[in-house]
Every structure is written in C-alpha cells, then in structure tokens.
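Revision sheet: structure tokens.
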Amino acid sequence: MHQLEALYESTPKAVGFIERKIDIPSHTLNLYGPPRCGKTWVVLDYAATIPKKKRLYIDFSDLRIDKTTLAKSLQGFIDRHGIETVILDSYDKSVPIPNCRQTVIVTQAPFTENPFMPLLELAPLDFEEYLAFEKRHTHPEHSFSLYLRTGSLPSMAGTHESLLTRRLHSLVRSIFPAKSDRAIFRQMARHLGKPLTPHQLYTALKKRTKISKDRLYATLEDLKERRMVAWVEKFGQPRAAKRLLIYDFAMPASMFFEKSLMGQLYSIAAWRFVGAQREIFYHDALDLYDPAQHHGYIISPFSNAESAAAKIADRIEALDSLKVKRLTILTVSNAFEFDFDALHIQAIPFYEWLVEDAIQ
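Predicted:
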C-alpha cells in the first residue's frame, strides 16, 4: 500500500506546459501517440485541474513500482479514498483497468482491447504548435528553417545548433534501445519520403546485419501501430512501392552527413493529410494527390514561375488524365500563381501553407 500512498500524495507537475491542439475530456478515454510527442505533459496538465484528493496518477515506466502488488491493491485503494479520476501513463496491461468515474489510459499504440473506449490521438508538433514552443519569435520563414532542423518533438524545440545532433542521437538511442532496431531505423531514414517496399528494406538490411524477414515485418507493423511510420500509396496502383513517412523528420536527417531536404519536406506535407485522416496518394506527375478534391501538390523548394511552367508543361497530359483542377506548388519561400490552360497553379511557401486552417 505504501507505493499507492506515495503516488497519491505527489502527482508530478507539468512545469512550463504549453497548450496543444487537443483537450482531455471529462470521460474515460485512451490518449495515444508516438514516443516523445508530449502525452505525459498533456495528462499532467489535465490532472492539475482535478482536486488532489480526487485523482491518482500512475506512471507504469516508474521503476519504483511493484506492479504485482499494484494489481492486487489498486481497486481497493480507489474505493477507500473516493478517487474519481485515475491516469495510467505508459500503460502496459500488467494491471487490470480499475473501475472509477474516469480512467485515462496513455499508450503509444491505440488500446483496442476495449472497443467501446474512446480514442484521442496526440501527434508530434505541427508547425503552428512549434511556433508556440520555439520562443525566439523570428520571421516565419526562419522559424520553418529551425523546425526542419530540430524536428517535431517538443523536447527538441529551441535546441541550440551546437547540441542538435547529439540530442537527436540521444533520442534515437532512447526510442530504439536495441541495436537491431536502430539498424532498421537508420536504413529507413535513407528512404524518408521515397518509395520503398518491405522486401527492398529487408534486402538492404540483410547486407549489413543479421535479421529475419519475420522480425522485420513485425517491427514495421509495430511502428505503424505506434504511429511512428506511415505509408503513402501510389494512386491507382496499390501494389506499387509506397512512399515512407517517419513521424519525426529531424531524427532521420541526423543519421547522415548528407541532408535530404526533399525527404523532410515530403514527410511534413504528407503527415498533414495523414493526421487529418484525409486520403492522400502520390503519382508519377505529383508528389501528393487528393482525389476527393482533384487537387495536386508538387514539392519544389526553390521553384519560380518560369521553372514551374516548364515542369507543368512536361506533365500536363498526366494532370489532365487525373482531372486535376487545382495545383499547389509548395516552396521554401517563393509565392506566385498563374493559369496553364484551364489549370490554376498557386505556389505558396511551406510556412504559410502549414498554418492554413484546413487543407483545401
């Protein structure tokens, strides 16, 4: 009982918490999302709104906790103290979910054992959230450059350039503690934003490390469930190689001396659709294609009107066959627009497009 008394008396505080784009409702739910995206800080901020005697916060990653004892005594402790809200952080199923007015379960993958439990996803920082975390208040173009370098994880915002690579590598080691998992991550990092099949990944890994196909495929499925990777399908060709997205775009870039600006930009753009649960594809003529809106996207960091017109002229037949009505060119800083036959083209800087209220 001693451990529960200690936990009951001292809920950690979310010191310096910066609001995110989600709110914890007052009913039972599962808050889920990938590692280091800020789930703990969100639930601790919520816990602070509940009277101390009515709440209990338990972090299952706390090495002091005896889970066998906890499983036997938790429900009785809740009942005796009239606790109304229990927060189970890093929940690992070793303890039965208690019965109380509200239970908040915090996990990386969605908790699917109770199909009636509402789900709430917390994604890493989008650019708009990053602006609140990054406190230098520079021009949005410069802030976007910092976002590219530091990535989408809250703990990295504001990191000084001299510490950046070391801190990113520390995150990689923490998130992927097994050497074999780091090898998989490093190989995936080479293909950020590029078409890749699991078999191609296996073939490349097999040249460098001992790994079974079953082990790799299980790891990929686990990463997908934990919202750490996603895949963009080729339009009209579901069996073709899918383009790989990794939930943080700075960690992959830190793994090599050569930077992959296009891979980072593609990942940022595509995750915006994935996070909004909008169906998105790629095509030989388009980096992203939203068929519901007949809207195509081309990522061209340094494009101007002349180079854009030449690029579109080479692709106009494919764009016509896709019935593209609008084409957006995502650049680093340039903005322009023009018409090409019946097609309207607009170029917009990433930092402006990412803070639009909705994807058009």
